[in-house]
Design a protein that fits this description.
homodimer; mainly alpha; MgtE N-terminal fold; CBS-domain; Tetracycline Repressor, domain 2; 3 domains; 3-stranded mixed sheet; 21 helices; 6 strands
């Protein structure tokens, strides 16, 4: 067992790449995870921490004191260090910053001045800068002074004496151009620069659109602050995608796969509670028609079909709209076109499935009237679903509410209420009034 | 109007970047889209095509003949060209290949030999290769023979005379190392290489894990075929994410936001049909208890609550599991832990909400027995939901079925059936048997 322990220790401290150690921790239930964490050398913990999800980072780093944080994070890139620091209580952040040298402290404070989800928050300050009036040969010799260049360096950044951003000198150009010409003659000046306050999802869109590897970050006065690199952008794209999927089920994308049962149930209870409210709303609609149901129990049997078809049809429209909004396809001028298309598609599918359900209902309950009623209710509900699915996400977006989070709850509330109301209402009219 | 037309033409042919033109087309309804497409110069169309979604690519390129395809695609990168060719009928592909020079044809046939969703299918063959025994100075002079280096060139690839892959020479090392040493002395030989048949989502995981900009692609004999670059990987990550969200609603991630009503309704009808089958299954369960409902109509009012709580609780578990599987967190050894955690969480939330619903039901219908029955049914359904939500995606994955596509349909079928069965069954036992 001590041999196995020793082997595990060796694997965790150099045997495996740190990113794999982080993955192993994420794929391990809490108790075993604690044991593994205890086996990792203190000075390697920072390297592992940077690859963990926020939930786990907070968990581990929250229990370290300033000294341990410092020991663990000495080898980290600035942007990764800033990420970690943001998980600490303010008091500990202060202590950590105190014990750093002035230059590092200044750079970290600069990066922490911007929110985590902005270009400034994800930037790195390890940029290699050059002046415009030197020759490429001087640049090449200057580079040779470095032991290595920062990761994802596809360009050097050209700045003035005052650190104003002037342009970028792509490494690829540096390599093919005549060494005797100056930086000014080959640099690109019409290149993209990111305002430090730009949202990270917007940064990701620009990287995708222009196939960037890195991009400079500037402040309001066009002063160069640092650069954003593609590896961080890939993380943002992945997190953004996870956020959509997870928030559709009322979950947090940073949640640890192995978070303990109590924590898990507390987080999920809220979503179940919200859903319960909407379910009671639907129930109260059914309650209005108790008398009708008592006389025609077939209604109770068939009513979930009407609600469920509306829910599915509406979710399809909602999903298409949420994606369209995210891709920037939806604007005021084409919203009418989309609404019309969705209503036509809703009417077509409404008609088709209304006939199918009506025929089955008639054969099942030997009641032609019931077929007409359920068919009509399905058409009504699919039209309302199309209308709600199209307009709801646009409305939520305007109110700065995430449509992926609340869209489907509101939508199914509408399709449940309208579905029960239409079906039971029509039945009451046609069975009881005559 | 002619002035406006002329202005539009100028915007489309050079005024806007091609990626923006493609975005404009994607964000425009079909009729106006046709007009815009007609205004784009023939030789620029390929550049625009490469940025469009598959749905639109097929639409436009499907109507071009071989000559037009050739005219449109002369400026494209090989991997983008191969992407486009795959949307053409075989006869047209043949014609296009016929009219190319032998070298280009050979390279394209090589890339098309691998499925679209593999490393071979997304690779580029514009790789710069060097031999191991030359000096860095020779490499630098060789590079200066090029007008420019291919995009995303962060390393040159080192190959033998027989094109066997030996290692990579990072540009960053080339720039800082002594020019008089040989490639062999600085190259990295333990670097990652991708088998041409590796799935694209696995490629993306490796890029994310190791923060890669590009990676070499080799065949079974370790011969260098080309390289995959980060811009294509970013597209894969984005498509993969969209695929999950869209397939949860039974939709195709390549679907045009503005596809016509008829096409849209045909695609969605299938999903509605599948859902209808499961809805009828739930209805038939209710049908078993018509007699009970006739005597106690409160059951019809409350039964959607039991089904809906199970559906929500189950989706939460399902979503966490699907993500856990995608991230590689779920394995045979920790599945038991996860199942136990989910069952405990299900029991906790089941108890809490059972009490809440029971109290409301008792007050609403003045019937204590009803409270006991609905509370018990909710606990049962949330436990079954936890069980199904945990095991179903693992089972589907083993059967090579996409859990994001079919998981939630199957899950809600289970929670509907069990929910109605438990609630109405318990009611029948306790009201009618006594």
């Amino acid at each position: 067992s001590s041999g196995a322990m020793g082997q595990a220790r060796r694997m965790l401290n150099g045997g495996l790449p740190q990113v794999d150690v982080a993955h192993l921790l994420e794929a391990t239930p809490p108790k075993e995870r604690e044991i593994l964490w205890g086996l990792i050398d203190e000075e390697l913990r920072g390297d592992v921490l940077q690859y963990l999800s926020e939930d786990l980072q907070s968990d581990f780093i929250g229990r370290m004191n300033a000294e341990e944080v410092l020991a663990a994070t000495t080898n980290l890139d600035l942007d990764d260090l800033v990420d970690l620091l943001q998980r600490l209580p303010d008091a500990v952040i202060g202590e950590v910053l105190q014990s750093m040298d002035a230059q590092d402290r200044h750079r970290i404070e600069l990066a922490m001045a911007y929110p985590e989800d902005t270009a400034g928050g994800i930037m790195n300050t390890d940029t290699i800068t050059v002046r415009p009036d030197i020759t490429l040969d001087v640049v090449l010799r200057y580079l040779r002074w470095h032991d290595q260049l920062p990761d994802s360096t596809d360009a050097l950044l050209v700045v003035s004496r005052r650190d104003d951003f002037i342009g970028r000198l792509p490494i690829n150009k540096l390599l093919v151009a005549d060494p005797n010409i100056t930086v000014r003659e080959v640099m690109e000046t019409d290149c993209l620069k990111l305002q430090a306050t730009l949202e990270d999802t917007e940064v990701a869109k620009l990287f995708e659109k222009f196939d960037l590897i890195s991009a400079p970050v500037v402040d309001d006065d066009n002063r160069l602050l640092g650069r954003v690199t593609i590896d961080d952008v890939v993380d943002i794209i992945r997190e953004d995608a996870e956020h959509t999927v997870m928030s559709m089920a009322g979950l947090d994308e940073e949640e640890d796969t192995f978070s303990p049962a109590l924590k898990t149930s507390r987080r999920r209870a809220v979503w179940l509670g919200i859903n319960l409210l909407t379910a009671f709303l639907a129930s109260s609609v059914i309650g209005l028609f108790e008398g009708t149901i008592q006389q025609i129990t077939a209604l109770a049997v068939l009513m979930p079909i009407v609600a469920s078809m509306g829910g599915i049809g509406g979710s399809q429209t909602l999903t298409v709209m949420i994606r369209g909004i995210a891709l920037g396809h939806v604007s005021g001028s084409n919203l009418r076109w989309l609404l019309r298309r969705e209503l036509i598609a809703g009417a077509i599918n409404g008609l088709i499935w209304a006939v199918v359900v009506a025929v089955i209902a008639i054969i099942w309950f030997q009641d032609i009237k019931l077929g007409w009623i359920i068919g009509t209710a399905i058409i009504i509900n699919l039209l309302i679903a199309a209308l709600t699915g199209t307009l709801l996400p646009v409305l939520l977006k305007k109110m700065h509410i995430d449509p992926a989070l609340s869209g489907s709850v509101i939508l199914t509330t509408v399709t449940d209420v309208i579905g029960f109301m239409a079906f039971l209402g029509l039945a009451t009219m046609f069975y009881l009034a005559h």
